[in-house]
Amino acid sequence: MTLGKEEKTPAVTEDGGYLPGTHPDLPPPSSVHGPVHWIKVNLFGSVVDTALTLLAVYFLYSALTFLVGWMFINAAFTGESRNDCRAVADGACWAFIGNRLSLFIYGFYPEPERWRVDLSFVLLILAIVPVLYEDMPQRGKALTYSCLYPLIAAWLLVGGFGLEKVSTDQFGGLMLNVVIGVTGIAFSLPIGIVLALGRQSQLPIVRILCVSFIEIIRGVPLITLLFVAAVMLSYFVPPGTNFDLLVRMLIMVTLFASGYMAEVIRGGLQAIPNGQYEAADAMGLKYWQSMRLVVLPQALKISIPGIVNTFIALYKDTTLVIVIGRLDILGIGNSSLADTKWQGLSTEVYIFVALFFFFSCFSMSRYSLWLEKKLHTGH
Amino acid sequence: MSGVAHQASIKQVGTEPNFLIRLWRNKDTRSIILQILTMALLFAFLAYIINNAVLNLAVLGKTFSFDFLGFPASYDINQRLIEYTSQSTHFRAMLVGILNTALVAFFGIITATILGFLFGIIRLSNNWIASHIVYCIIEFTRNIPVLLHILLIHGIIVHVLPSPHQAHTLADSIFLSNRGLTIPDPIFGEGFSFTVIAFFAAIGIIIAFARWARKVREESGRIYPVFWISTGILFGLPFLVFLLSGSPLVWVVPELGRFNLKGGITMIPEFLALWLALSLYTSVFIAEIVRAGILAISKGQWEASQAVGLQRNRILHLVIIPQALRVIIPPLTSQYLNLTKNSSLAIAIGYMDIVATIGGISMMQTGKEMESMILVLSIYLCFSLVISAFMNWYNRRIKLVER
Question: Which of residues 375-394 of B touch A (CB under 8 A)?
Fold first, then answer.
């Protein structure tokens, strides 16, 4: 098409004009394309827009100059106390964070044993890979490892069987957040599947039980469940048995997460067309067979973005353990503020923890968005 | 292969399975058996844990009763909406806690909704820079735990803001200091009740007017500027009555005392921090819901309304928003619930809500862990049920009216 056009030599009439249909294409006028037009439409489209733009630019300018000045230009990065920082600069005092970085990560985990935390973290990443990548070779074997991972990690972190025992009271910092978040998600997944199936069950009593469990869990705040773990749960075991606070917390967090997980998986189950259920029935598969072989693989696949989102929410909620006296990364920061050498640095601590959470949660949510798009175009 | 299977099935039919197996193979009886088994398991589990609880209570020498609610609480509460002293009962303390939770949830829901709709609309606007700034605010806010928001804002109020003597002030009547936000206290004189009556009358008139305007629009197509007229009635009528009845309202402006501000209403830093943090945190989720709701309306609706010659604001008001609301309301409900539940984080900064009163100090003082926790859990469940019942009712209403 375009070639044909170019070959045609423009026929010029006697008074310098073109014959009809032979005028060469001109670029659009500069008022409807190009950066000037873009700015006109997107920044100064109307009076309100102009006001909004000016306001936004002012806001951006003042916020950025303040933040950059406080966080970088006027900040102190080294020093042994708050006074050292103040002597150098009047902005943020990051020396405090650097000084206590290992406390933020490992909590009070004994220093010579910290390689176990590192190792279990590396193993965790290896365990997540087969869950997320379905085209991985030998996925079945790798998934078996993923299922066994919680046991391996528990052994590594708590000790026993050849390793030195570490009391769970010494868990803290980022490590505690990860332990609670990962345990909550890993164990809530099977419970959530059972609850979601129960909610759709033909048996009325099973359905009512599942619905009321899910709704009760979703109706109360996590903080009250953590209080239940701290003060009430030990009443429900036979007298004399004493079980660890961390385990009690993990039980409640798992139950909490499974209520939300059940709803995510129910969404996945409802997205499966009825024909799939009917086809599985027509093949003569029994209930559990049809679920295991036909429905669940598809439903779980499309629920992965929702599962990742549940994990992000749970991971943020792990900071709540400080209300029952456990020191996670936020709690470590909070309690460090009591140190007289470093008093009055709450903003630095909170911003450090906030940035940490922002980067980890933001990357996870990008991943889930990407996954959602990929699954969307897959059909 | 199939021959063998056939033979096998004939053999099975021939050997009449016994009664129990036949019950199991019948779909109806099997479902009954399964349900009975489930109930049995559940009751066994409940019996087990209740038995354990009874034994444990006996070992500790405690009883299970709610009598402690009648005993004096003997602790102070820093914010009370009803009369409360340290001599009051635990039950009274619980009421104060419930009201405090309700107060912060109520204000939080209002500001979160306003802020959320604002963010959502700016996010959708053509203005590139404003929309991207809001995008950054949304992403930053929602990826940071809400507890951190609360602690950060509380820290800023308590540590960064000046003392009452150097308080930031607006027109010498509103003061912001590290003791909180102090605003003038209205004292209602005699005859103010007329203004209140006029206000409710205005609401009634607006509802009647909106109905009438809708009827006219549906019948004749004439459109009145309902929003502006309603706003005028809502503020104009009470104001007119207020002036006519002789302006029976005095503002008690806070003044600087020796140590603190005297007079006026003070919002304590804990309330302010909780309110601001919860509103901000929830508003960004609402913004995304609003954005998704408006984007969910297909382009054809816009094009069709343009084709019938509607203006942009009419399109939004008559076509897009009524449809978008149906998408927005259900997730909005769960955000309101989340805000109410997140208000329990109050305990981290010492705002005396339900968890901090009955589930905190009262529980520690009386040692009634089980009773207190049951009360707290059931109060939150009631909150959740009330909010979702209201929103379900609203959801049904807009569905019926619009279709």
Answer: 376-377, 380-381, 384-385
